[in-house]
Structures are given as structure tokens and as C-alpha cells.
Design brief:
The chain has 273 residues and is of the alpha/beta class. It has a single domain, classed as Rossmann fold (3-Layer(aba) Sandwich). It contains 10 helices and 8 strands. The protein has an 8-stranded mixed sheet with strand order 1-2-4-3-5-6-7-8, sandwiched between helices. β1 and β2 form a beta hairpin. The longest helix is centred in the N-terminal third of the chain and has 14 residues. The protein is globular and about 65 Å long. It starts with a strand and ends in a 15-residue tail after the last helix. The mean pLDDT is 96.
Length: 273
């Protein structure tokens, strides 16, 4: 349990296990504690580093807006601070957006990237999900203080009175339009996309996102020689709100992280004489 002074933020992080490093980034209003149900599995054979992003969990807020871009800079700064060179980075929802910006802005520090339940354009969310984001702000503080979200925040936050500020800053970010399609197509790290089969991200957008990474554009050939480097997993029986702690998430992700190579095999030629 440590703090790293990065870009004017004192980032709280925890380390579990040993081996190749994996940075875990939590969802909005949450903390690294969100991953506790699956942490033992992920940390078996790798060095897992959970991070509390600006104003979340045990990391105090600072005098700057919450922006995915600055959060991406913070994650890259933490990787440098720890002397990791490169790390695998996995994020869920709000944290997946920060992970994506890390790979876009600092491609040299991300070895492999796992994005759970995030679109690459704001209109990739369902309209009702966008409506909820539009409503986010301190006006919801009274209601949210009755929820498990606040129970966790109040237990670990260095300044519990900042909760309404977190809601306002989060709402401001969530209302900003974005389209990272061009940036996604230029990502150099291998990427895995993971969604629930009842996610808040539209299935049509998931297909578009995967295509930007080179996935789903053609048959992979009988020997797999034309399969894309990118991976896509749809986990059945989950929603946007429980996928991050599901036992099926590490089962899907670990083979991607552990694969010695993600390059397709050399073509073996056509079947038959």
C-alpha cells in the first residue's frame, strides 16, 4: 500500500503477486477495491497493481478537472515511477477510458491493453446510459449516500466531504463528447475488448470498435493465419454493472495476457491436394 507523486497527484496503489506487471483501473466513483473478488486469480503469476485514480478511493482530489486524458498521463507516470518500462493495462468503464488514453498518449509504456465495457465514441452508449451520465452531479449526493458506492468511499477517502465534488467532476467529464476512432486505429499494443452480453454499450458499436482494431473484417482462414491480433470476448449472463467482478473476466483475459505471441501463424496453404 503506497502513494506515488505523479503529475501533482498523490496516487494510491497496491501491489499483489509477482511477475509481469498488470495495472488495474477501476470504474467511475469506485476504487481498486472493485477488483478484490478476482484479484487472487489475476495475481497468480503476475504483479498486479491496483490504482485509485484522481479523487477516487484513497487518492485525494487536486485542483484540476477530471479528464480521461490527464488520467492516462497519470497512469503512464505511475509506470515510470515504478520503473516498469512497460506494463499490461486493464480498465473497466471509466477506468477503461483512462487505460485507452494511456495507450494512445503513451504507446511506449503499454504492452497489452484490456478494455472492459467502454465505447470508443460517446454515442456507443445506449441513450438511457447517456441520460444517466448527463444527470450525474452533486445533486445526486443525497441519494448516492444511501448506496454501497458511498459506503466504500466514506470508508477509505482521505476527505469524505469531497464526495459532491467527485460527483460534479465526474458528471462534467461524462457529458463531454468524444470520438477516438482515429486514435484507436493507430494503437500499436495488442488490444482485447470485453463486454457483457447485456452491457450498456450497444452491440453495433462493439462490432465497429473491434473492426477499428482489425477484428471481424474477414474469415481467419482454416489455419488461423488471417486472424486479427485484437481479441473480443462477450461474457454471457452479465451486465455493465457486475462484469468487473465476475469470475469469467479473468478466465477470458488471462490467456490474452499470457500468450507468448499474438501474431497469427504462417499460412499453411489451401486444404486438399
Amino acid at each position: 500500500m503506497s502513494y506515488a507523486d505523479v503529475n501533482g497527484v498523490s496516487l494510491y496503489y497496491e501491489e499483489h503477486g509477482s511477475g509481469r506487471p498488470l495495472i488495474l483501473l477501476h470504474g467511475g466513483l469506485g476504487s481498486g477495491d472493485m477488483y478484490r473478488p478476482i484479484l487472487p486469480v489475476l495475481a497468480a503469476g503476475r504483479r498486479v497493481i491496483t490504482v485509485d485514480l484522481q479523487a477516487h478511493g484513497r487518492t485525494a482530489d487536486v485542483d484540476r478537472p477530471l479528464r480521461y486524458e490527464t488520467l492516462g498521463d497519470d497512469v503512464a507516470g505511475l509506470i515510470h515511477h515504478l520503473g516498469l518500462g512497460q506494463a499490461d493495462v486493464m480498465g473497466y468503464s471509466f477506468g477503461a477510458a483512462a487505460a485507452l488514453r494511456t495507450a494512445i498518449q503513451h504507446p511506449d509504456v503499454v504492452r497489452r491493453l484490456v478494455l472492459v465495457s467502454i465505447p470508443c465514441r460517446r454515442d456507443g452508449w445506449y441513450p438511457e446510459s447517456l441520460a444517466g451520465m448527463d444527470a450525474m452531479g452533486s445533486g445526486l449526493a443525497g441519494m448516492l449516500m444511501q448506496s454501497p458506492v458511498y459506503e466504500t468511499y466514506a470508508r477509505v477517502a482521505p476527505r469524505v466531504e469531497d464526495f459532491p465534488v467527485l460527483l460534479d467532476k465526474t458528471g462534467e467529464q461524462l457529458r463531454l463528447d468524444y470520438d477516438w476512432s482515429a486514435d484507436v486505429a493507430a494503437i500499436s499494443a495488442p488490444v482485447m475488448l470485453v463486454y457483457a452480453d447485456a452491457d450498456a454499450v450497444r452491440p453495433a458499436h462493439i462490432v465497429e470498435f473491434y473492426a477499428l482494431l482489425g477484428g471481424g473484417l474477414r474469415d481467419a482462414n482454416w489455419d488461423g493465419s488471417l486472424r486479427p491480433v485484437a481479441r473480443l470476448a462477450i461474457l454471457p449472463g452479465y451486465t455493465h454493472y457486475d462484469i468487473f467482478a465476475s469470475a469469467d473476466l479473468p478466465t477470458a483475459v488471462i490467456p490474452f495476457l499470457d500468450a507468448a505471441s499474438l501474431e497469427p501463424p504462417a499460412p499453411l496453404g489451401p486444404l486438399g491436394p
